[in-house]
Amino acid sequence: MHHAELGNIKRPVCFDQSRLRIEDVVDIAAQSASAILSRDPAFRAAIARGADFLDRLLREDGIIYGVTTGYGDSCTVTVPPELVAELPHHLYTYHGCGLGTYFTPAQTRAIMAVRLASLCKGFSGVSVELLEQIVKLLDADLLPMIPSEGSVGASGDLTPLSYLAAVLCGEREVLRNGVQVQAGDALREAGIMPLRLRPKEGLAIMNGTAAMTALACMAYDRAEYLTKLTTRITAMASFALDGNAHHFDETLFSVKPHTGMQQVASWLRQDLQCQETERNGKRLQDRYSIRCAPHVIGVLADALPFFRSSIENELNSANDNPIIDAEGERVLHGGHFYGGHIAFAMDGMKNAVANLADLLDRQMALLVDSRYNHGLPANLSGAEGPRAAINHGLKALQISASAWTAEALKLTMPASVFSRSTECHNQDKVSMGTIAARDCLRVLELTEQVVAALLITVRQGVWLRCRLNPAVLPEASLMQMMESLGADVAAIAEDRRLEPDLRMLLERIRSKSWVMYA
């Protein structure tokens, strides 16, 4: 579990120029941490220097992209000095064209925190007041209503972030206590003055990778937990199938040096008895979905450090354009809004996560089939005697799990390779990072549904194996998991509707209810 709230005391996350972690964003999203803007005078002076340098350039008639020129391919259009102040308000106004479902409250908090982190680096030319305004919105939990669709992920998340920019200025809508309210009314009632954006501030808020990076932080948090939960389910499936724990032998895994894969095998050894005598009467080799589980789960386990590095480097970057170098007194025009690293991480993560769903789907197919489950009842039905004839156990649950798996696998097509040329060929190669991140979250959601189905399945399978052979008990860690699952999900001795059990298990998965493996 993450740093939980103690009463109403939240863990403070200080926003300055120091490095943030994925967990900081996830905790702010979950409201178990709060964003605090550093009061360090040196930090605040560094922020002010950027804004002051821009002001001086404007007075000296410097040409600055997006400040004294139009945006995108309109950079050749010079803005008359008397209209410069209006330009940032036009930027967020004409980008108000998002569609699709709105980001969830948690996702929106994460987006706000990630944008704040980038602007705090001190290379965006924004005022301290802008940073304070984002913190005020987070404190009051006034969340911009941000449509999730409409970003190609280069020039950053322009359209989604326009909704944050507009709300900072008292325009558009916010979610307050679950109710949609006009931003102007909500700010006034919270005692927050709407901002009037300074010349570069519209661009600084919008021209960056905050939406995709925020979603990536949340995806990482869920994927990391699923590596452990899928391993625990595999251990339970192996026990239920009367499998051969020697498939996870330490010497066996020492000869293939993938660290994450070796870790998964080590976790399985903690959960399963590996006694020399066990070979007697056992099949020589279990099917791949059991025997090769460390190799499947291990791909994600080994990729996680790379994903963390990519996501946290993006989180801790200044990623708008232009970059304002107040120290060197230069305006640097570049392309740090390009979300390629996040796009690649999300495309890779959704592939590795969907493979977990596929692995579990195959394990379930073995568990419910009396030809392969080594003496367990068909469909793992717990009914006995005459009533066994009318009971069908987990027959339909396996169909549902198969449907969720197929949908997850279908979504593994990488988004990053579908770049389009947009905006009069100015944005002619784009990242698609936000689409990749949204796809990844959907794959995670579907995989968690498969995990919920498998938790019911292995809980049933272990119960039935123990009923069949009371002399053989699972290891302490599996017994503890059985007790925990048993508190939520009764054994299925008679057919029942399983949707309520599945929904409860999804809540347990998403709140990381089971502590697994040190």
Helix-strand makeup class: mainly alpha
CATH superfamily of the largest domain: Fumarase/aspartase (Central domain)
What radius of gyration results from the CA coordinates?
27 Å
**CATH architectural name of the largest domain:** Up-down Bundle
The CATH topology assignment of the largest domain is Fumarase C, Chain A, domain 2
C-alpha end-to-end distance:
12 Å
Strand content: 5-15%
- In CATH, what is the class of the largest domain? Mainly Alpha
Strand order within the widest sheet? 4-6-7
List the secondary-structure elements in sequence, H or E. Answer: EHEHHEHHEEHEEHHHHHHHEEHHHHH
Largest sheet: 3 strands, antiparallel
Overall number of domains: 2
Shape: elongated
Low-confidence stretches: 1-6
Q: Could you name the key traits of this structure?
A:
Fumarase C, Chain B, domain 1, 518 residues, disordered N terminus, single chain, 52% helix, Fumarase C, Chain A, domain 2
